[in-house]
Amino acid sequence: MVNCVIKCRAAVAWEPTAPLMMEEIEVAPPQEGEIRIKVVATGVCHTDLYHLFEGKDKRGFPTVLGHEGAGVVESVGPGVTDFKPGDKVIPLFLSQCGECKFCKCPKTNLCDRNWSSKYHDIMSDPTTRFTCRDQPILQFMGTSTFSEYTVINQIAVAKIDDDAPLERVCLLGCGISTGYGAAVNTAGVTPGSVCAVFGLGAVGLAAVMGCKNAGASRIFAVDINEQKFEKAKVFGATDFLNPKAYNKPISEVLAEMTNGGVDFSLECVGNTEVMRTALESCVKGWGVSVLVGWTDVKDFSARPIQLISGKTWKGSLFGGFKSKDSVPNLVCDYMNGKIKLDEFITHKMSLEQVNDAINLMKTGQCIRCILNISK
Ligand code: NAD
Ligand code: ZN
Q1: Enoyl reductase (ER) domain: which residues (predicted)?
Q2: Could you report the per-residue pLDDT of 314-332, keeping only the tens digit for each?
């Protein structure tokens, strides 16, 4: 089998906004430094929906979406020594080559060899290993986990514990690491602090979990969908606010409830208005607000006094975690009970049901739906 083209099932996004189509695709063998992975399970993240319904950049199609997966190594290309067939792995949408100036710097988790630094507008590497109906198919975020097989460079694959349950730890490939790390790494939430998390999808709930694990004394959970509040409690939220239930800005409500504003706020929606609100909800002097939600179609704005008065506005990609080093440790943290994963999973479906899973997220009915791709 090694070095053959594999034909397999994948959900192809042929164009923006259209439903994904189940297709037979050809997956080329791994080239120098690459790994071909049999995907076992994948989550559906809002960033997949962003590409399909919000970003809608035609240059990023046709593509296979999915970037929150886990699987098993099927074969390796020349020069790959750290992986062998059968290893359990998590694909990484953010690589860690270990050699570029960013990888060598402890201040960041960016990597110069990541797909995004070169093809940011396209959101996938044009040298794809996928073909369908004689057309090249792009690999979204370099991962493409809505497919039975995918090929990824070894700098964007984490080898994980042999006993890890793939249908749960797949969530560490994006949403949970992102939200959790945004709180513990990027915001640097401190013991006894007061926090607010805007948006209670998996990313926001993981941010709540991060605030809790970092010792926050009060965690405000903010969402326009009140059905999310019950879950937020499970992860440690103490107060629950629906901005639509007030006739004044939620930043004012928070300021009144906290004697001037929260110490840390995290935007986990991907909405520039909410980003501004999250900043305005912080206390002057030392408040820190972190952008986690993803959007690249609009500018954002705020009054300069917000920063002049001593607040800090930051952003976080993959929770600030150096991906290849950190994901195996996060898997251990889950297996040792330090972080939760099971509680994020509200639905399980097959790859054929991917459009239903996307619809669940679009209509706010799920936290994470896991697609079982193969045994
Ligand atoms: P999700 O759709 O499951 O959750 C979003 C939540 O925000 C929902 O509960 C929704 O009700 C809520 N919401 C919508 N509008 C709101 C408003 N005006 N005020 C308050 N809450 C509001 O999405 P998710 O998978 O949790 O992802 C959240 C965001 O994080 C997305 O933008 C996604 O693209 C982004 N993301 C960023 C990174 C990164 O590395 N920075 C990684 C993964 C995901
Ligand atoms: Zn994601």
Answers
A1: 15-371
A2: 999 999 999 999 999 999 9
Q: Note whether 29 and 159 are same-domain residues.
A: yes
If asked whether residues 333 and 303 sit together in one domain, one would say no
Does the pLDDT value for residue 40 go beyond 50?
A: yes
CATH number at residue 267: 3.40.50.720
pLDDT one-digit tens code per residue, 249-284: 999 999 999 999 999 999 999 999 999 999 999 999
Pocket probe mutation, ligand 1, options 42, 44, 45, max atoms within 8 Å of Cβ: 45
Residues 339 and 311 in one domain: no
- Name the residue among 185, 170, 168, 60 with its Cα closest to residue 115: 60
At 11, the amino acid letter reads A
Tell me the pLDDT band of 29, cut-offs 50, 70 and 90: very high
Among 35, 175, 26, 25, CA closest to 93: 175
Between the CA of 246 and the centroid of ligand 2 the distance, in Å, is 31
* Ligand 1 neighbour 371 (Cβ under 6 A): no
Report yes or no: 54 and 34 within 8 Å, Cβ to Cβ: no
Query: 105: domain range?
Result: 6-175+320-372
318/176 Cα distance (integer angstroms): 9
Q: From CA 137, how far away is CA 24, in angstroms rounded?
A: 12
| CA gap 314, 181 in Å, rounded | 13
